[in-house]
Amino acid sequence: MRLALFMPSFGDGGVERMLVNLAGGLVERGVQVDFLTRSRKVPYLDRLDARVRLIETGKSGRLSVQPAMCRYLREARPDFVLCGKDRAAQAALLARRLSGVPFELVMRPGTTVSERVARRGFIKRWRAFRLIRSTYGSAAAVVGNSEGVVRDVQMIAELPDARMHLIRNPVVTPDLAAQAAEPVEHPWFALGEPPVIVGVGGLRTQKGFDTLLRAFAQVRAQRACRLLILGEGRLREELQDLARELDVAEDFALPGFDQNPYRFVARAGLFVLASRWEGSPNALTEALGLGAPVVATDCPSGPREILAGGTVAPLVPVDDVAALAAAMNQVLDNPGDAQKRRAAVAEYTVETCAARYHALFEKILWERR
Which of 2, 45, 116, 153 could bond 32 through an S-S bridge, CB–CB 3.0 to 4.6 Å? Predict the structure, then answer.
């Protein structure tokens, strides 16, 4: 069995990390895995299993990537091409027509699509949904990472139950604990310093870091603590301005993107997910896997499933500053059971997820025969 993981446009987000993890899990099971992306000089690829063949396409646009993609398809003739982003799938489908190589497309949507496009105008939403129906309708299987994502995509793409599958994100890796044990030189984590509240993610509207910052200001008014957000994005200046406006700038830090956020999360007094929407939030799952105390918004989709309706850790309404601040204070006072948090994400191991993808691929091949 040969699988191509096709991610021509590669960033520093959760989809990219999950595909790198999945590649390693599948090659361990004997699948021949090729990883196609524009350049090897991007985050996370240094963690790619040495048995995975890394292929640079040199281009990432739907049309510009075609020569490299068609050449690869004719040479390797993969059974499957798995895409984590819609634009990659559109490029792959075009390459299938141009090359004549009949691979099976598998889609892996990583977020709640309806929430992602909800703020667009009517015409743009209609175009987005129309494109999703066309792209996902051409897939042999669609794999959502949470029940909410599966329901959302199925509703938009109008797909039958048989084409929809739920497989969790391969988040809890064998080396997660080792990465978390690496040293942290930031002075806030020195012995005797106030607890550090940590957030992880791109500095964009989806992640709700403005709400987290406002809630932090309320918590900071009652106790000594600090807020550190690991990530980069276009809202950096806005968040810094808001911190000054709230008079908490001295206790707020934006160190930027870090390839190993786990060493910070493992030492945090509290990890907070303040997102407005997600698919299945990897940062929250990783924090739980490390046993860190957490608070999360009850956003679509994922946190409610991961936190078992709030029995594992507090869930608060999206954009409710007072509720978030109250939950943060509660967990700082009483962090709860770390072992219970670790047990909540037992289904999110690389081994479990790779086994389920492998079984799905075998089923599709058997049905094709």
Answer: 2
334's CB contacts (< 8 A; 6+ apart) are none
Given the structure tokens 């190993």, which residue do they identify?
260
Fold adopted by 2-170+349-368: Rossmann fold (3.40.50)
3-state secondary structure of 125: helix
Convert the pLDDT of each residue in 244-296 to its tens digit.
999 999 999 999 999 899 999 999 999 999 999 998 899 999 999 999 999 99
Q: Are 69 and 100 in contact (CB under 8 A)?
A: no
First CA to last CA across the chain, in angstroms? Answer: 14
For the chain, which residues make up each domain, given as ranges?
A: 2-170+349-368, 176-347
Copy the structure tokens of residue 194.
Answer: 């106030």
- Do 2-170+349-368 and 176-347 show the same overall fold? yes
Collapsed DSSP state (helix, strand, coil) of residue 205: helix
On whether the CB atoms of residues 234 and 254 are closer than 8 A, the answer is no
What is the value of pTM for the model shown? 0.83
The fold for domain 176-347 equals Rossmann fold (3.40.50)
